[in-house]
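agent> Task received from the user: take the single chain below, predict its 3D structure, and emit structure tokens. No templates, no multimer pairing.
agent> Plan: (1) validate residues, (2) run structure prediction, (3) serialize to tokens, (4) report one or two observations.
agent> Step 1 OK, no nonstandard residues flagged.
tool_call: predict_structure(input=
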Amino acid sequence: MLRSILVLCISILLLSCNSLHGPRSITSSSTVSAEFSRSWISSRPGYIYATHYFTSEQTDDPAWEAVRLSKMDQVLICRTGKKVVRRDVRWFPVTRKSGQRCSAIIYTVKCDIPTLVPEDTSERDRREALLGELDEVPSKGCGGKDRILGPDEPDYDMKQYLHAQALLADAGGCDFVDRQLDAEIVIFPQTRIGSSTTINRALAARFNEGYLSYLARDLPEYPERIIGSALLRVGKLSAIFPSGGKAPRSSANIELVQTVGLGRDGRPYCVQLTALQGGRVWRRTIERSGAEGYAGIGIFPRTAKPTDDISLQNDVRQLLETLGNSMGMPAETPE
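)
tool_result: status=success, residues=335
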């Protein structure tokens, strides 16, 4: 019997809940500059989507609600449409560490078409999220998340720029000595999956204007989106993706390292995915050369033709799908 368990912690102070007859419809032009922990637990009719932690203001703010709902689709579980049928707010008391009460917000989502999970555990999973222990306790300010910046605000472009610059490294590059390693990586109950992304600074200098910001926005989200979707698609226990992408080192937790660098001997680029679990290392590498390599990073010499099949982003997705396949989670095939 497949069993889905979501663990959220600390004793409850106040519980409020709202039943919804359809998805929340909140229009917001804001762009997210915030990180918070989120988990997905699938069952036959749909899934439980849990997010934490938030201040009182963030809990009720329509802009923050739009942020939470926008990140719901980072992991795709429903094959067609979906609707939010319930929204629960769990409050945690003031502690010396948090300095204020903080909330976890749990959404019950129903898919238009049932998932492949054979059992309906949605109510049990929802109650576990509301009453169970939590993976991490609220920190100061309920996590100290950045405010939400709109694209018209003066700081928006600078925020995007600084975020992209933080991923750059002078020495960042692929390991061509051990470009393929085959240690077994296993998802255990309560496994935390952290991730990091590094882009070689010299390679980034070749990019067209705006391309680095595009990569900086998308690549850090790929591990959660692709591995998380694969876990839930096959009905396995959902791992937890901590806020900020950091997972404590342990024999059960997994660290995913995405590296984008220059290829050997002047080749356009390479991408490499390394999965670390305890002392085990899994790794795969893709290196692109010639015209297709330049096309893959958006540079099209006269001899190269743009292609939808070759792109740096697609290569990163392919490596994550290969890792998922090695863990018994085949990539989704188009119907």
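agent> Step 4: summary for the user.
The first helix runs from residue 56 to 60.
agent> Done.
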